[in-house]
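Running co-folding for tyrosine.
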Amino acid sequence: MDRLELIKRNVQEIVTEGELEELLNKKEAPRAYVGYEPSGKIHMGHVLTVNKLIDLQKAGFEITVLLADVHAYLNRKGTLEEVRKIADYNKRCFIALGLDKEKTNFVYGSDYQLGAEYMLNVLKLSRAVTLNRARRSMDEVGRAMDDPTVSQMVYPLMQAIDIAMLGVDIAVGGIDQRKIHMLARENLKNLGFETPICIHTPILLGLDGTKMASSKENFISVDDTEEEIYKKLKKAYCKIGDTEENPILALFRYHIFPRYETVVIERPEKFGGNITYMSYEEMENAFVAESVHPMDLKNSAAKYINEILDTVRKVLL
Ligand SMILES: N[C@@H](Cc1ccc(O)cc1)C(=O)O
């Protein structure tokens, strides 16, 4: 797979592709980052952007991971001390998932976001962005946005300034980050900074085919046990013929195929024996043609996900 193909695989949107191609021609080692609000449960949604960072690392990018403790604090997720502690745990998870420890630059928000230069930039940006726009940019990111706090209006401004101050060419994130990224793209130039390229990954559905939510426990997180994963996947939504909203197929597409050259679905002889797929598309076609059964996919998905998470479990012990 060539560099551009690797970067583009499994992404929902690149803003813009032309700018990306230009960047690749211009720079040998461009810089990209993802920011994460520290979270007690790192789930497969987080892992999807980690996978993209690993792709970018393979494509020669320099990677920064922002452990966004101040952002989590502004988003009313806990005290600064609490979120900072969770950030340490998250860092260990990300390394265990395959980000190269030597080559990844881990940064805590609180280590640089409280400086004078940073804050002055946030204040400058605050004059250029309307309250309405700041609020809308937080639609899919903010907690309890029916009654937002001022801190949640500062949040997107700081995220935009992060892009500038971390000196990255590319901001990576789920498609839920889109409105904040657009705000950054429109305003950073006027403050004398480069306009960032943005890469957006899709947002995974929960295992029951509805929106992921911690209250519903409808997702796999990296600290699930082997049995929990078999149990969760066994009852996951995987309707015959449905390829659009199929969380099991999504696991293969976004998590398993990127880490394995070929995927073997194990089946008893009497159901046709094992089948090997060389690509996600090949598996999806077989699923549509009903030549592979949801139950067989579920069992194999559990086996592969457990294999992937085994290294994480060992590191977290
Ligand atoms: N907004 C991101 C977190 C983040 C914070 C600051 C950034 O610079 C980047 C990302 C989230 O929803 O999790």
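Result summary
The chain has two domains: 3-201, 214-316.
Residues 294-316 form the longest helix (23 residues).
Job closed.
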